[in-house]
Amino acid sequence: QTLEFARTELKSKRLKPSSSVKNTLATMNERFRHCLSMSKMLNAENLLTDSGIDPNDTSYTADRILYHYALEQCQSAALDELFNNPGECVQRYQAAHVILHALQFQTGS
After folding, report:
1. How many CB atoms neighbour CB 59 within 10 A?
2. In sequence order, which residues have a C-beta less than 8 Å from that of residue 107 and are 6 or more positions away?
3. What is the end-to-end Cα distance of the chain in Å, rounded?
4. How many other β-carbons are positioned within 10 Å of the β-carbon of residue 77?
5. Does residue 65 register a pLDDT over 90?
6. Within 13 Å of residue 94, how many CA atoms lie on the same side as its CB?
7. 74: nearest Cα among 63, 88, 84, 59
8. CB burial of residue 73 (10 Å; 0-12, 13-18, 19+)
C-alpha cells in the first residue's frame, strides 16, 4: 500500500525525493542488477546442477545461505582468535552478529 501510494504521489509530481534518496535507490538498483546478472550467469553455466544442487529446490533460501555464512564467519573468527589475529577476529564476529541479529529480527516479525 505504501509503495503504491508513493508511486502515485511521484507520478502526480507531489512527491519530490531528495538527492540522498535518489542516490540510495540508484545504489540499491545497481546492486540488485548485479545480483540478478550473477544469478543468471550461475544458472546459465549449470554450476548449481554440476555441483549437485537442484536450482528448483526451494530449501536454499537467502536466509539459509546467510545463516550458514554467519556460522562460517564465527568459525573463522574462532580460528583467528586461536592464532592471535584479533583484528580479523573482531570483524568476523561483528559481521556474524549483525547477520544473525537481522535473521532473528526477521523471524520474530
Report:
1. 7
2. 63
3. 19
4. 22
5. no
6. 6
7. 88
8. buried
26-51 mean pLDDT: 79
* Block residue for cell numbers 556460522: 71
Q: What is the DSSP string of 23-49?
A: HHHHHHHHHHHHHHHHHHHHHHTTHHH
Give dist(CA 75, CA 16) in Å, integer. Answer: 46
| Residue pair 96/103 in contact by the 8 Å Cβ criterion | no
* Residue-by-residue DSSP string for the chain: -HHHHHHHHHHTT-----HHHHHHHHHHHHHHHHHHHHHHHHHHTTHHHHTT--TT-TT--HHHHHHHHHHHHHHHHHHHHHTT-HHHHHHHHHHHHHHHHHHHHHHH-
Rounded percentage of the chain residues whose pLDDT exceeds 90: 20
Would the pTM count as exceeding 0.70?
A: no
